[in-house]
Amino acid sequence: MSPTPREAAQAGVPDKPLLAVLRGERRDPPPVWMMRQAGRYLPEYRELRAAKGGFLDLVYDSDAAAEVTLQPLKRFPLDAAILFSDILIVPFALGQNLSFVAGDGPSLTPPLVGTDLATLTPYPVRLEPIYETVAKVKAGLGPSQTLIGFAGAPWTVATYMVAGHGSRDQAETRRLAYGDAGRFGAIVEAIETMTFDYLSGQIEAGAEVVQLFDSWSGSLAPSEFERWVIAPTARLTARLRQKYPDVPVIGFPKGAGGKLCAYARVTGVSAVGLDETVDPVWADKELPAGLPVQGNLDPLALIAGGAALKPAVRRILDALAGRPHIFNLGHGILQDTPIAHVEELMALLKKKKK
Amino acid sequence: MSPTPREAAQAGVPDKPLLAVLRGERRDPPPVWMMRQAGRYLPEYRELRAAKGGFLDLVYDSDAAAEVTLQPLKRFPLDAAILFSDILIVPFALGQNLSFVAGDGPSLTPPLVGTDLATLTPYPVRLEPIYETVAKVKAGLGPSQTLIGFAGAPWTVATYMVAGHGSRDQAETRRLAYGDAGRFGAIVEAIETMTFDYLSGQIEAGAEVVQLFDSWSGSLAPSEFERWVIAPTARLTARLRQKYPDVPVIGFPKGAGGKLCAYARVTGVSAVGLDETVDPVWADKELPAGLPVQGNLDPLALIAGGAALKPAVRRILDALAGRPHIFNLGHGILQDTPIAHVEELMALLKKKKK
Q1: Model confidence over B205-238: pLDDT tens digits?
Q2: CATH topology assigned to domain B34-294
Q3: How do the domains of chain B map onto residue ranges?
Q4: Contact (CB<8Å) A259/B282
Q5: Residue B273, strand partner residues
Q6: How many angstroms away from the CA of B51 is the closest CA of chain A?
Q7: Among residues A110, A139, A210, B312, which one has the fewest Cβ atoms lying within 10 Å of its Cβ?
Q8: Which of B178, B255, B304 sits opposite A308 (nearest CB)?
Q9: pTM, to two decimals
Q10: pLDDT digits 0-9 by tens, A262-279
């Protein structure tokens, strides 16, 4: 049980609204952070990024990565920082070469569609600079702010490792999973193990919550979803819970649709993220009572602002007023989002009164 | 009420399993057809297509289009033919120029993102050759086979008309819908009206069922889904039902996820199509009792065949054994699907015994 704000204040423990919600409290207004909040919509991010050169150079410079992580918290009254890193650090540590080509997105070589996993040489040392970033961010946070670590969920990471790049419908990986479940299962298992180590390292360095991004879970048929999304997430969550019982795990199975209910029931995650296509009224009705949820403003409603933004925010707040809720977008904030609209969102959230 | 098979036989009315299911009967085995069943996985299709040149040339040659429509029924024991045409015939009739560039997909000019709808000159005459195809297909069908006409649902058609092409996440159209709902609403209304005429023409020419493909409904936030998917589908369905009370309307909101329940309850469609990501067990539990459903084999499971195919088919048959069910894929059949796997699927379906 987390202390109430009063108990915390009495005990001298700083109140962290995001952690409180993840432990089952409702807060009004809800705590808020935004996926990809440290990103290109911020001029100070673009400036630092330009000075550093490549994306990976920025991720691996722990001073710069910590600075970038903290940038949005200097502008907006956010309740959490999320580590500035990338889900493909795990394939990099598993031995694939990783590069980010402007306009083309990430590239991993060799792609596992044509290469045996056993030919890769793991370099777990590639994870360590990230832990330094975590520690530096933690040192820069205010007392009410929470530090979120993250990794890609095994299925999503596997789609990149198999294809060697992002893809519209993950067809290559889905075909491998159907056609050679043994070989594909070994890839997922290797990712799971490395991800457990990676999240453990983040937690040891100061992450207070971890989020598993399953960005491409939406393309899977239900039996494949059970096998490659739910089962690995459940195993990973159980291992983390055993080692770090106090660290909540947020699962974010983007595009899961109606399968969100099974995901929430079976994986054991502490909270589920809702993407922007999920009706929060439906989610509140269908998800296990008391399970904290996170989301789910459409990033395009934030770009539109004004007349589109207000009712979209209101619908989410009203729908989720009856359960622990962390306000967030349903997807990463987009590059051309006006700063003024983020300020408008913060003002709308902070004046919420039930 | 449709006659039972016995009553139909007694009355001399041919029994059409697909129509019977759409009117609320359960059939074992279920009737079957496959989205995009007249397509490039068939060598006879590729041959005719090569002889005709462009895709649009094939669509507008009603003899060839009718032949293509009937090709899969000559190979497989399918219960329905679906008109060979394209959802972009409606924008073409609304006055946009339509072309299909190999590798690039369809192009509509001028895109409405930068042009006012009022500058287009409608050419409803562009719909008429399609009605000839419908009549020719109808004349070629066996007595137990059903002819399905179709159109794109207004939202999906609008995404092409606004952007001028297909897009990954329909962001341009979603932005226009948020930013200028009045202008976007006028586009949707024009599509609705032309689509009503188009489907009426198909029905007059012999279509016995119509399907509304809402291929891009999956990207919408819930309030936008209500406004641009559910509401236009409900209006169109109501108009069709009033004019042709005996013609069932199948709604296929691809990617709707948890919003499928609201779609099924509110639109008034006679049946809903399930894409391959929908768990049929969940759908059977959540959808209105007795509502016919269509779907939803993963096209990649059909490509995989063998050990992957059998349990995937079984799961669907078992989950939907308690309600009227039309077996189908969850998405169009893919070009590299082996013919032998389609034959395997047909054999699996035809030997089904409860």
Answers
A1: 999 999 999 999 999 999 999 999 999 999 999 9
A2: TIM Barrel (3.20.20)
A3: 34-294
A4: yes
A5: B294
A6: 30
A7: A139
A8: B178
A9: 0.94
A10: 999 999 999 999 999 999
